[in-house]
Amino acid sequence: MTAAVDVRALVRPDRVHHRVYTDPAVFELEIKRLFERTWIYAGHESELPEPGDYIRRTVGRRDIIVARTDSGGLAAFGNRCAHRGAAMVGVARGHVRNFECPYHGWAYGRDGKLVGVPLAGGYPPDFDLEDRRWSLAAVAAVASYRGFIFVRVAGEGPPLATYLGPVADALDNMVDRAPGGRLIQAGGRFRQVYNGNWKLILENSLDLLHPPYVHRSSYPTAAAWEADNPGKPVDQLVQQIKANNISMRQWDELGVFGLPFGHAYMGGFYKDSKIGAERTDAPYLAYKAALIARHGSAKAEAILALDRFNTVIYPNVVLNVHFLQLRFAHPVAVDRTVLETYCFKMEGAPEAMHRASVRCLTALNAPSSMIAQDDHAVFAQTQRGVANVGADGWVDFSRGAGAEGADAGRRKGIGTSELPFRNQFQAWLGYLAAE
Ligand code: FES
Ligand SMILES: [Fe+2]
What we know:
alpha+beta, Rieske Iron-sulfur Protein, Naphthalene 1,2-dioxygenase Alpha Subunit, Chain A, domain 1, 2 domains, 9-stranded antiparallel beta sheet, 4-stranded antiparallel beta sheet, 14 helices, globular, binds FE2/S2 (inorganic) cluster, binds fe (ii) ion
């Protein structure tokens, strides 16, 4: 069925055919040729600090275990016993001495290698524990970039650092912000489902044309908070929500940037008049002092100067470096996506800094938040609308197409340019068209 899809016919430089959002055959191809063939974020090293700790993730259609081995490294394998195929673990995260199959008790080491079978004498004489066919099947590659773990389920490809390329600076910056040099995933996590295609969240995260419309209801709430709290310092979260009401000219000044492999980011608005002055509250000043103590003043200032809102690591991660927030999307069906969202605690920073990250996570992305729910509602509405045409319906991405520039090897557009989506679909076609 999937072989019949001519993906090249679905993508033009400035528009895509609606089937990329609606056709289950296209979706199957995305799973095989994109999600199971490139680097996909699997989790953070702080989720599995000790040998024997593991996390379980779905990548494409594959149920994967990433484990901390006895030597402190990482191993990743399918959640499937080599005997008769039972799933080895049933929870999202845990700790084992060995992985023991719940069905007939075959035991595997933390690196996935078979170490023991009950009643071994009943198997054929040439049954050999050392034979790799009896190991839990390793995925093609697992690697960590500064604590962020990615896996490639199958196929060949560039090393992780090459794949990330210039977008790695967002991960670097998140880690460098920690005075102790390390991030710890903490503060809970949200898992939500929206009724729309997985690509909608990637597009939305870099879409500066939508906030004044989709998030129209949020800024009066933030303004009301300010009115109700005269004289109280307005924190960055309130400022950020109020910023949904900035002018189109101000949105355009932020800029959007396209990178190789479909990665992209938007400029930031933390430092100038769009969102208020830099923070001067006591926890922030204590944090900044700790960062200066570690790096010296010049480097600390440079770290804090990276002024950026969302960064997208293609195909499914959205980062906010300021609030140490990470979201990732898992495609379930052509019109259904699971979104997982959490934030990180900076080692060596005052507890109040982490509370601010959790507050931002909750206010912007919780199931009852002012922002994410409006986005998810518009995803469902878009999903209903895109296919509501004759056979030849197209979705337009032409805004800003004639006014693209380049900046240090990055495609650059004005804030409301649809450049990130053109850039994403160029990468998408590269994956989907590859046999
Ligand atoms: S299926 Fe795992 S031991 Fe039999
Ligand atoms: Fe939004």
